[in-house]
Amino acid sequence: MGCDDKELSVLITDDSQIAELNHQYRGKAEPTNVLSFPMSVEAEFSGDPKMLGDIVISADTAKRESDALGESLEHRIDRLLIHGLLHLLGHDHIHSDEEAEKMEEEERRLLALIMEA
C-alpha cells in the first residue's frame, strides 16, 4: 500500500464514546461503526511525518453488524479497520459511485490478504 513506514493509532470503544466523537467532528449525534482521523498536512511539518492517523471503531456497533451479517466479530472489525485505513489513504465512497466501487474492490483485496495469513 506504500505506507510501510507509517504509524497508525487504533481505538476500539463503545457506542457512547464514538457517538460523542461523531457529534464533535461530523455533527451527527449518533454512534457509527468507524471513524477515521487523518493527520493534517501541518503534522507533516511538526516533526511527526510517520503518523498516518487515527481509526476509532465501536465494538457495540460492530457486534450488532456482525450478528446481522452472520459473520464473526473479528471479521467485522477487520473489515472496519480496512475501511478506516482506506479513508486515511484518501479513498472516498461518498462523493462518487466510481470511487465507491474502487474502495470496495480494495477492501475485498485487503480482506483476502488478511484471510490468507
Automatic annotation (TrEMBL):
Give the cofactor note text. Binds 1 zinc ion.
Is DNA damage a UniProt keyword of this protein? no
What Enzyme Commission number(s) apply to this enzyme? 3.1.-.-
A single Gene Ontology MF term assigned here is: metalloendopeptidase activity
The reply to whether Hydrolase figures as a keyword in the UniProt entry is: yes
The residues the record assigns to binding Zn(2+) are H83, H87, H93
GO cellular component labels = cytoplasm
The record's section on PANTHER family has: ENDORIBONUCLEASE YBEY, CHLOROPLASTIC
Q: State the family named in the UniProt similarity comment for this chain.
A: Belongs to the endoribonuclease YbeY family.
**Protein name (record):** Endoribonuclease YbeY
Source organism (scientific name): uncultured Desulfobacterium sp
